[in-house]
# Entry
Amino acid sequence: MKRHIRKIASITLASLLISSSLPLYASEAITLQVNGIPRPLKVAPILENGTTLVGLREIFEVLGATVNWDENTGAVRAKTTDMELSLIPGIKTAKKNGIPVELSVAPKQVGGNTMIPLRFVSEAFGAEVNWDETNNIISIDTAPEEAIEIQETKPIEYPTLSLDEEGTKITYDEAVEKALKNSLALKSIEESLKISEETQEIARDAVVVHRPAVGDNTSEQAFFVAEAAHINALLASTQADYGVTATKYQKQIQEGVIKYQVKASFDSIQNLKKDIELLSKSLETTKTQLDITTQKANLGLESDFNKTTAEQNYKNQQKQLEALKKALDNEYIKLNRLMGIDDKERASLDYALDFTPMEMNEVELNAYIERALVKDPSIILKGEAVKQAEYNLRLYTYSAINPTDTYAVKESKLNQARLDEMQAKNNLRDKIRTTYNQIKQLEEQYQIDTAKLQQAKEQYNILKTQYDLGMVIELNLKQAELAILSAQVAQEKTAVQHAQLVYLFNNPYLLSQQ
# Structure
C-alpha cells in the first residue's frame, strides 16, 4: 500500500512540475490591430510570467520586415529598409543594427514559432504598442503623432547640381538682338532687298499703259516691235516684283534661323555645363572607389586586374571630362561669333527651362498643318514662282533673240513650278506631322524620366537612413546621390529636346532648313 501511495505521489508531483513549466495561453481570442486595421493572428499569443509573447514572424511581416532563420547558428534575423534585428531563442539579449538590446523575457520556440515579448515590437520598430487586457486587443501604431510632426518639419533634402555662373548675365532676347545685328548673311539679304526694290521701281516706270508710238503705224514690223517692247516691260516688272517678295521672305527665314541657332547654343551650353558638373561628381566617387580597390589590392584582398580596371576607368572619365570642357568652349565660341563678341568671353546665360505638354488632337493637328501651308514663306515663294510662270506663258511672244524659249518650254516651266509647289507642301506636311510625333514621344519619355527620378529618390531615402544608422559607408550614399543627379540631368535633357521641337513646330518654316 505504501509503495502504491508513493507511486501516486510521484506521478502527481511530476504532473505539477510539468504544468508549471508550460506557458499559459490566453483564455479568449486576442485581436491584433495595426494602425487601427484588424489583422487575423494565426499564431495565438501566450502569457508567461505576466509578459505577453507574440509570434515574431507574423508580427514583423505584418509591419513590413523580412524574416529569415539561420539554421547553422539558430539565429532569427528580421530586416526592414532602416533596421536589422537578430536574436536567438533562449537568450534574452538581441541585437538591433548591431547594438545589444535586453529583452524582458527570452524568446522561445513554441510549436515551430519564435515567440518574443510584445513590448520588444515597440523597441524594434519605434511604434506605439498597447495591450487592452479587458477586450484582449493588441494595438500597434507605426506612425505616432510625434513622428508625423518630425517628418513634416524636416523634409528630406535631395542633391542638386549647382552650376557656377561667371561673367555678365545675358538673356535669350538680348543674345538674339546681338546676333541679328551681327549677321553678315542678314546684312547681305538687306542689301539685296534694296537692289530689288530699286529694280522694281525702275521696271514699273518702264511700263506704259499705251504702246510706244512708232514712225510708221501702218508698218507691221513697227507694230510688232512696239508690242514686244510693251510685253517685255511687263515681264520685267513682274520679275522685279517677284524678286522683292522673294528677298523679303528670305530675310524672314534668315531671322528665324538665327533665333533658332541662338536657342540651340543656349541649350547646348546648359546641357554641357550639367554634364561637366555631373561627371566631376562622378569622378570624385570613382576616385574613392579606386583608392579602396588599391588598398585592398595592397592587402591581397583584390586582384591586380580589378585594380588596373579601376585605374583605367578613372583615366577614361578624366578624358571624358576634358572632352566635355572643350565641347563647352567650342559652343561658347559659336554663340559668341553669332553675337559678334570676343571668343574668350563666357557670358552667364539667363536660362529658364519650361516643360509643357502639347495639347492637340488629330483634328487640330490637320487644321494647324493647313494653316501652316498658307503662311510658310517657302511655300509662298513656290506659289509666287507659279504665278510668274503663268504670267510668262500668257504674255508669250516669239523672240528671234532666244528662239529656244518657245511656248512649249514656258508651258513645261509652269508645270515644273506647280510640281515644285506641290512637293514643298507635301514635304512640309510630313515634317510637321513627324515633329508632332517626336514631341509626343518625348512627352512619354519625360514621364519615364520622372518615374526614374522618383525611384532614385526612394532608393536614396533608404540608403540615407542606413547611412545615419551606420549600416552603409559614405561611398554608397554618394552613389545614390549620383543616381539622383543622373536622373535629373536625363529628365532636363528630355525637356530641352522637347522645347526645341516645340519651337520648330510653332515655326514650321524652319523645318525646311533642317
